[in-house]
Amino acid sequence: MTEVSIRGFRPGDGEALSILVARCLREVNSRDYPAELIERMCAHFTADRFRELSVERRIYLAERDGRVVGTVSRDGNKVYTMFVDPDLLGCGIGRRLMRHIEDLARAEGHEFMETGASITGHGFYQRIGYQDVRVSDTEFGINYILRRPLSGA
Ligand SMILES: CC(C)(COP(=O)(O)OP(=O)(O)OC[C@H]1O[C@@H](n2cnc3c(N)ncnc32)[C@H](O)[C@@H]1OP(=O)(O)O)[C@@H](O)C(=O)NCCC(=O)NCCS
Questions:
Q1: How far apart are CA 107 and CA 120, in angstroms?
Q2: Whose CA is nearest to atom 29 of ligand 1?
Q3: Nearest residue CA, atom 48 of ligand 1?
Q4: Which domain holds residue 42?
């Protein structure tokens, strides 16, 4: 696979992120969630929503050959909206994005990273070193809260 690079969000990225997330939801998350919920989530993650979110959080994009192939967001040590191109699952892009934001959070002095995982993303986070802390409910259903220590990692 050619090189994947990671960069911060620019205002023109909203459309590409909205398309990427909708593809993930319909092609991957749909195995764990009913169609009605998937469509509600697609309607939530519009290009404008990403532009709004970029004010509240740091959004990162993974690019390959000038194409957006993944995204993750961070507010300090909290992780949000992790999605990878469904055609490139299992290639290490998700892990790469997580290590990138973990390094940034560690440099800011955070002792652990915390994420909220969907049913679909739960096994991924466990695989890359996250441990279950608790379970919560969101408007989009069950959310597994997991943490990974950053000190000495
Ligand atoms: C979850 C997701 C981000 C993982 O991205 P990815 O780029 O495929 O993950 P990676 O290739 O970096 O995988 C890292 C490791 O986790 C494993 N893994 C990936 N997805 C997994 C899953 N759902 N369950 C268990 N293990 C998983 C990989 O096999 C790999 O294992 P290895 O250490 O043996 O190599 C991606 O599947 C995705 O976008 N899913 C749809 C959206 C979603 O559910 N996002 C999470 C919201 S909480």
A1: 29
A2: 90
A3: 117
A4: 4-111
